[in-house]
Amino acid sequence: MGVDMMIEAKSRDNVAEATVGETFLKSLTLLEQVHRRLHDVVKDDLERSGERSLTGVQALLLYEIGDGETPASTLRARGAFAGTSMSYNVKKLQEGGYLVQTRSDDDRRTVRLKLTPSGQDVRERVAALFERQANALEPTASVRPDDLDHFNRTATRLERFWSDQIRFRL
C-alpha cells in the first residue's frame, strides 16, 4: 500500500494521525509532482502560443538566465536544474537560436549564457504566465499570500536541512 493510501485510510477511519515519517514521504512526493507539473504547465502554455520546439525545462532555463549574461555555474548552484542534463539543454537552446554561450576572457573554464531575441521572447512569455498564475491563485485555488509565505519558509528550512546533511555529513 502506498503512502497516500495509508494516510487516506488512517484519516478515513479516524484511527490515528499520520506519522511524521508518512507525512514527510507525502511531502516529498508532492514536491516532485508539483515540480513536474510546473514543467507541464510551462510547456502547455508555450504550445498554445505556437512554440512547440521547447521543453518546460528549457523554457524555465531561459527564464532563469534573465536579461543579462549569466554564468552556467550560477544556474547549477541554484539547483533548479538538478536531474536535468544542463549541458544538453544549453546545447539544444543554442542550436535552436534561443541563447548564445561564450567563454569568459578571464577564465576560459567559465561559460556565460545570454539570451537571443528568440530566447528573450520565451522568457517574457514565461514571466507573463507566472504573473497570470500569481493573480489567479487566490480566486481559483484558494491559495492566499500567507499560504505561500508559510510554504516558502518551510521549503527554505527543508532545503537548508538537506544542504546541512550533505555539508556536515549528518
From TrEMBL:
Pfam family, one: HTH_27
Gene3D superfamilies named in the record: Winged helix-like DNA-binding domain superfamily/Winged helix DNA-binding domain (1.10.10.10)
Recorded superkingdom: Bacteria
Domain HTH marR-type positions: 24-160
Protein name: MarR family winged helix-turn-helix transcriptional regulator
Organism encoding this protein: Ponticaulis profundi
Lineage: Bacteria, Pseudomonadati, Pseudomonadota, Alphaproteobacteria, Hyphomonadales
